Amino acid sequence: MSRRLALAAVAAVAIATGADARAEQISMLSSWDESYNAVPVFAQGFIEKVAERSGGEITIDLRGPETVPPFEQLQPVAAGLFDMLFTHGAYHLGETGMAFGMDAIVDDPAIRRESGVYELIDAHYQKHNLKLIGIFSAASGYHVLLRDPIGEDGRLQGRKIRASGTYHDFVTALGGSVVTLPTNEIYTALERGLVDGAAWPVFGALDYKWYEVSNYMTRPTFGVTNLSLFMNLDKWNALPAETQELLLDVAQELEVEGRKHFEKLWAEEEAALIERGLEITNFGPDVNPDAVFAAGVWKQVKDKTGADGEDFYIFAREKGLTPE
User: Fold this and answer.
1) What is the side-by-side order of every strand in the sheet holding 197-201?
2) Nearest-10 Cα torsion for 35, 38, 44, 47
């Protein structure tokens, strides 16, 4: 090889090595696949914004629940097998209930950030070797799909309601009994009358066509559906300060933009369900679904998180962030 060619080869390697040094490849584990409408808005939206803002130097590889089951994802990310995690706080109640508490917090991104609640949650998850990047509201909460309307009791007295741990305390507090079923069995259970209703986020009944086997949806809705984004703390600490700042800035922007997007989706979905025959049935005037749900959330937060969970609850009450 001539001296000129040799120098050119060395230069090419140096350029490639420099590019690799600047580039940052990150893996993100998601509790849902792309069919869940929060994934394109928040997970993929975050990935796209980060790539654009970094000029393509930061790339994020999204992997879904087929890689690791949703309820088993916290530990692999804490251990560094994956860099980031997009999930819901109720999905890791076996380890901690801290992020689940956000479902009982006022639904306003600006108020949340100004209150200091993020710092409280972040400090807790750092004990689990995780860094809180953002918490995204879907601008909606939860409701119950029912075969029959709310009766004179104004509650769910005597009804069998399909519910996960998210709604367990809510359903039992209103006199119902909880039936545990996977998502793919809800349609058949409603159709055959094996359950009288199903608790679920506001979004979902349309895609799963549960309006075909239920007749009513309860109002008012209760709680707030929140999705959390975490990063392995070791990975976070190894990032340059400017990259850390970029990731946090993008998450904060998405908290506002994504919520506005979901406000529009919520109105469209509710109109579509009504068009397909679902009617609204209201809880009784003496029932405050938001407060009942919040009480159940805080019970689990304190039970699963110990002193930090108790501090979170006290903090939220003192700041006026949660319904009484």
Assistant:
1) 177-179, 160-162, 197-201, 142-146, 216-219, 279-282
2) -150
Token pair 């209703």 is found at 197
- Both 285 and 257 in one domain: the answer is no
Identify whether 27 is part of a domain.
yes
Tens of pLDDT along 172-229?
A: 999 999 999 888 899 999 999 999 999 998 888 888 999 999 999 999 999 999 999 9
Contacts of 95 by beta carbon, 8 Å cutoff, 6+ apart: 74, 75, 128
Same domain, 108 and 252: yes
Task: State the pLDDT at residue 35.
Answer: 82
Q: How many domains, the chain?
A: 2
Mean pLDDT, the chain, rounded, equals: 91
Residues in contact with 55: Cβ distance below 8 Å, sequence separation at least 6, in sequence order: none
Give the pLDDT mean for 312-322: 96
- Candidates 324, 281, 322; CA nearest to 101 is 322
Compute, in degrees rounded to 10, the torsion defined by CA atoms 130, 41, 203, 73.
Answer: -30
Each residue's pLDDT tens digit, 268-297:
999 999 999 999 999 999 999 999 999 999
Full domain range(s) for residue 301: 142-222+277-307
CA atoms of 86 and 255, how far apart (whole Å): 13
Any domain includes 170: yes
If asked whether residues 172 and 257 sit together in one domain, one would say: no
Residue 217 lies in a domain: yes
